C-alpha cells in the first residue's frame, strides 16, 4: 500500500502535496521529523478515527518497525483515510492490505458495506454469507467499468480472424 500511496503523492499537484505536508505537520508536534505513538494516538483521538481504524494501525504503518512514523509512512496513512482503504476479512477478521475478494451483490448494493474476504478464507470457505458470487476487488472494479467485457470481446474478435 505504501508504494501506491507514494506513487499517488508523487503525481499530485503541488497544492495537494502541500495539503499532505500540512496533514503530516498536524500529527507531528515535537519537531523531530517523525510521528511518535503518542502523537499518532493524540491525532486519532482528536479527529475521531478510533472506531474506524484497525487496532494495530500504527504497527501496520510503521514499515521499518522503529516505533515512529516517517513522512512516507504518514503519506500512507493519509492515502488510507482519504480513500477508505480499511477493509477487514469477514472470515478471520484480519486487516486486508492487499488483494482480497468481495461479494459482488453486496458491493453493487453499497460499496461502503461490502462483504470482504482474504484469499485464504475465500479459498477455504471460512465464512458464512448469503451470496456466492465473489471476485477479487480489482477485477470487480474493472468489471464495473465494462473494461473486462470490452477486452474479452476484442480478444474474441481477434481469435476469430
Short description:
The protein has nine helices and seven strands; from the N terminus they run H-H-E-H-H-E-H-E-E-E-H-E-H-E-H-H.
Q: What would your notes on this structure say?
A:
This protein is mainly alpha-helical. The protein has two domains: about 1-80, EF-hand (Recoverin, domain 1, Orthogonal Bundle), CATH 1.10.238; about 90-160, no CATH class. It has nine helices and seven strands; from the N terminus they run ααβααβαβββαβαβαα. The chain has helices spanning about 1-10, 15-25, 35-45, 55-60, 70-80, 105-110, 120-125, 135-145, 145-160, and strands at about 35, 70, 85-90, 95, 100-105, 115, 135. The protein is globular. The mean pLDDT is about 85.
Index terms:
single chain; Recoverin, domain 1; 2 domains; 7 strands; 10% strand; globular
Q: What is the CATH architecture term of the largest domain?
A: Orthogonal Bundle
Q: How much of the polypeptide forms β-strand, as a percent range?
A: 5-15%
CATH fold-level topology of the largest domain: Recoverin, domain 1
The shape is globular
Query: What is the CATH class designation of the largest domain?
Result: Mainly Alpha
Q: CATH homologous superfamily of the largest domain, by name?
A: EF-hand
Tell me the total number of β-strands: 7
Compute the CA-based radius of gyration.
Answer: 19 Å
Q: What's the number of structural domains?
A: 2
Question: What proportion of the residues is helical, as a percent range?
Answer: 40-55%
- From the N-terminal CA to the C-terminal CA, the straight-line distance is 41 Å
Tell me the major beta sheet: 3 strands, antiparallel
Summed up, the helix count is 9
Amino acid at each position: 500500500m505504501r508504494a501506491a500511496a507514494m506513487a499517488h503523492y508523487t503525481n499530485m499537484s503541488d497544492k495537494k502535496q502541500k495539503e499532505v505536508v500540512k496533514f503530516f505537520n498536524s500529527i507531528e508536534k515535537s519537531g523531530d521529523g517523525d510521528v511518535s505513538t503518542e502523537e499518532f494516538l493524540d491525532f486519532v483521538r482528536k479527529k475521531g478515527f478510533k472506531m474506524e481504524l484497525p487496532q494495530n494501525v500504527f504497527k501496520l504503518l510503521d514499515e521499518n518497525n522503529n516505533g515512529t512514523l516517517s513522512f512516507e509512512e504518514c503519506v500512507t496513512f493519509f492515502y488510507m483515510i482519504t480513500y477508505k482503504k480499511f477493509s477487514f476479512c469477514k472470515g478471520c477478521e484480519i486487516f486486508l492490505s492487499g488483494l482480497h475478494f468481495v461479494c459482488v451483490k453486496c458491493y453493487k448494493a453499497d460499496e461502503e458495506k461490502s462483504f470482504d474476504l482474504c484469499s485464504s478464507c475465500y479459498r477455504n470457505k471460512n465464512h458464512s454469507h448469503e451470496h456466492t458470487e465473489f471476485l477479487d476487488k480489482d477485477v470487480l472494479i474493472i468489471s464495473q467499468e465494462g473494461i473486462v467485457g470490452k477486452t474479452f470481446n476484442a480478444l474474441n474478435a481477434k481469435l476469430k480472424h
